[in-house]
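fyi for ur records
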Amino acid sequence: MASAIHHESARRPGPFIKVNCAALAESLLETELFGHERGAFTGAVRQRPGRFELADGGTLFLDEVDDLPMPVQVRLLRVLQEKEFERVGGTRSIRVDVRILCSAKAALEACVAEGRMREDLYYRLKVATIVIPPLRERREDIVPLAEHFVRRYAGEAGKRMQGIDPAAMRVLLEHSWPGNVRELENAIQRAVVFTRGEVLTVDDLPRDLLVPGGSAPGPAATALAPLHDAMREAERRHILQALERTGWRRAKAAELLGITRETLWRKIQALQIAIPADVAEE
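which gave:
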């Protein structure tokens, strides 16, 4: 949606820059948005422009802005009000002409009421609002979205895919999709990566789509798996839930799970958990 708004506007000749506010720790997010000067912190061996500078003349899309830390909210408010900022560790003001688009998982009014968002920033952001219903309320979008993701990830993997078979598509249509389009995208990405055929089948889909209450009925949903497989799948779902709850921030997910980040990374690889393409590396 944000990309479409940019490319259909007068700013389309300019850059379209996206930042996932939930994917980075506070210190990293600040330098990602505003850049840093050489020597601003240990390891800052050269000057680096931030996303605001890179988006000058175009559009900056702040995804999951409801996860923006308070100190970063203060700096964002200044950019919105004065159209200028300083890099981390710098004193020179940098002026930019950037249109800001935002998305949020939670209602921003609730974030203000809970003290997680500044009220003045809320009113600055809430100029025009587009409410996108959850995927379960617009099931007519599932088929074209699923087919789009198959083409996208098959292309990235260098695979020749012919699509999704009817039984697998029924599973996709009947799943409740609590994670909305991102959950669908992640499911298709995982299926494309691990399939050996040219058509996605029910067997290629993640097993968490085949549990009662979220999938099509049938033998795949009710068959009793061996204990080892059941425990492996339960561990996989538990780790996925932690990753999704923390916005795929692996350090936070590891802390939530009570394991080290290195152990979490080994389990992600062993359990074949696909990291979404838009998640920044840690």
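The first strand starts at residue 16 and ends at 20. thats all i got for now
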